[in-house]
Write a structure and sequence with these properties.
Layout: E1 2-6, H1 10-21, E2 27-31, E3 47-50, H2 53-58, E4 62-65
Parallel strand pairs: 1-2, 1-4, 2-3
């Protein structure tokens, strides 16, 4: 299952770590404006970091929006 988490801040990272620890995704896309902050999650191998929301959405089966309402 391919999952995209749009907004990999505190909430998004918590969700991502839970999914990764339970092996719930074959591929996970994490989006954030500054991808350097989430670079360490690529060690899982099936995680792709990007600042391009369109790329993450196009390549995923499930979308999780972890954004503040004002940014949505």
């Amino acid at each position: 299952m391919k999952i995209a988490i749009i907004g990999a801040g505190n909430l998004g990272l918590s969700i991502a770590k839970g999914i990764l620890h339970s092996n719930g995704a074959t591929t996970m896309y994490l989006t954030k404006r500054n991808t350097a902050e989430i670079k360490d999650l690529e060690k899982y191998g099936n995680v792709k970091n990007t600042s391009d929301n369109s790329e993450a959405v196009a390549n995923s089966d499930i979308l999780i929006f972890a954004l503040q309402p004002g940014h949505f």
